[in-house]
Amino acid sequence: MSKAVSALGGVSHKGFAEVAEAGLKGMITLRGDLSSAKMKKAVKAATGAAMPAPRRIVTGDGKAAAWMSPDELLILVPYEEAQETVAALEKALEGEHHLVADVSDARAVFTIRGPKADQVLMKLCPVDLAGLAEGEIRRTRAAQVAAAFWKSGPEEFTLVSFRSVAGYVMGLLETSSRAGSEVF
User: Fold this and answer.
1) At 80, phi and psi to the nearest 5?
2) Which of 77, 89, 162, 172 could staple 26 via S-S, CB 3.0–4.6 A?
3) What is residue 4's predicted lDDT score, i.e. its pLDDT?
4) Taking the complete model, does pTM exceed 0.90, yes or no?
5) Which band of pLDDT confidence, cut at 50, 70 and 90, is reported for residue 184?
6) Contact predicate 67/52, CB 8 Å
7) What is the Cα gyration radius of the chain?
C-alpha cells in the first residue's frame, strides 16, 4: 500500500471554470530514438498507444504517451503502475541507448474544466489556444514556471508542472479562473 500523497491533497476551486489538482499520476520520462522500432514497440506495450506525433498525446488502455521533444516522451500510467512500467521499459529497451526515469513524485497534475477553460490558460501561457486541437500538447510556461498542458477533452485541459511549485500553480489557476475575470 502506497503512502504517497499528492502535492496539494486534491484542492479545487470553482470560478468561471473549475480548476483542481488531479491527484497522483504515474509519470515516466522516456528518452531515446523515437523512430526506432524497438522504442515504438516498447511504448505500445507500456501504454497501449502508438508513438505520438510531434506535439501530440496519444491514449490507450487508460494510459498515454505524450511527445515532449524530438527524443523525449512523457509516459502516463496509474500511479501504482509506475515502477513496474519503468522496469518493463528498461527490459524492452535493453541494448538500445535510452533513459527511463520515474518522475511521478516530482510532478503535479491539474485539470481545468468548463466552457471557458481555455481562458484560464490564455491569461497564463504564451500559446494560441484558439487553434489547439484535442490531444495536442504544449511545453510552455504558466506565468513564471515551466509547464506542459494538453487539451484532454472538449472543455478540459490537463496541466503538468513541477511538484515544488504546485502551490504557486494552483494559486495562478485559482486567480485566473475567478468569476468575473473572463477574457470575453
Assistant:
1) -65, -15
2) 77
3) 85
4) yes
5) confident
6) yes
7) 16
CA distance 155 to 44: 28
C-alpha distance from residue 71 to each of 47, 63, 75, 90, 97 (Å): 18, 20, 13, 16, 11
CA distance 80 to 1: 9
Instruction: Write the CA distances from 32 to 4, 47, 116, 142, 172, integer angstroms.
Output: 29, 17, 37, 27, 34
Distance CA 163, CA 6 (A): 9
Q: Cell 495562478, residue?
A: 172
Q: What is the pLDDT of residues 15-25, one digit of tens each?
A: 999 999 999 99
The kind and range of the H/E element at 82 are: helix 82-92
Contact status, residue 34 vs residue 44, Cβ threshold 8 Å: no
Which tens digits make up the pLDDT trace of 66-75?
Answer: 999 999 999 9
Assign residue 95 a region: left if phi > 0, alpha if psi is -120 to 50, beta otherwise? left
Cell readout for 70 is: 524530438
